[in-house]
Amino acid sequence: MRTKPVLTFSKLDEETGEMLDRMFEKKDCMVEINPGRVILPADYMSIGQDILDMEVLEDDVWMCSYPRTGSTWAQEMVWLIGHDLDYEGAKSLQQIRCPLVELSCIMVDGHAQWHEESVRGTSVDLVKHRLAHPRYIRSHLPWDLLPLDIQRDDGSAKPKVIYTSRNPKDMVVSYYHYCILVHGLKGTFEEFCDIFMRDRAPFGPVWNHILELRYLEKSFGRNYLEQTDLRFIRKGEIGDWKNYMSDDLSRRFDDWAERHLKGTELSFE
């Protein structure tokens, strides 16, 4: 069983804090959470421990990913498969059918349509007390911040976990436009790429997020990944990054990815 981590919260270094405050136009908008050096909105401090301690059920289906990897699209497919292609049911708000468990710390500035329509309490409360079974749950949190129950080696029931990944070049383009659309991000694409590659973007560090899956092999043995339901189900190959990145920025991304992927047997095209 995983040892229960102690969550710690700290202010960002001055340079990162000032840049993110300027880009998101909000003072002290982000904090660093450990373990993992994860940067998240400050409101995560009010729900982080609840997520870590929540009960995970055997029939749960968890869709985990870094932001902007196609998880919303993939979750719709998974939900429809699990509900006999109930297209009428799929017309209801996705955040009610298959909520992002940490959404309460993200949608805090007037974008919370899901909350206004039918959620009482936090997104964690929705998952714990109001979600129909089997539960379909999404999260962009890294391994260290997911519920302790989600991976146990004591013979207890394990949920289904699906992990989606994507070429980081396409991912950063999509993430940049998402932050502009939803959070009013102010800043250039080059600035956003810089904090992304320095592990200072929200939900970063990105490679820790993806490669922590290697933790499963080290912790549970080489046969574990052959037995578990955990899988990469999608690797985006859209190529839209070519419309945004200069040759120099593209090379920097390639070098950055190569350093982190060396020896992992994981690659992106």
From TrEMBL:
GO terms for molecular function: sulfotransferase activity. Pfam families: Sulfotransfer_1. Residues 59-215, 226-264 form the Sulfotransferase domain. Belongs to the sulfotransferase 1 family. InterPro entries: P-loop_NTPase, Sulfotransferase_dom. Keywords: Transferase. This is Sulfotransferase 4A1.
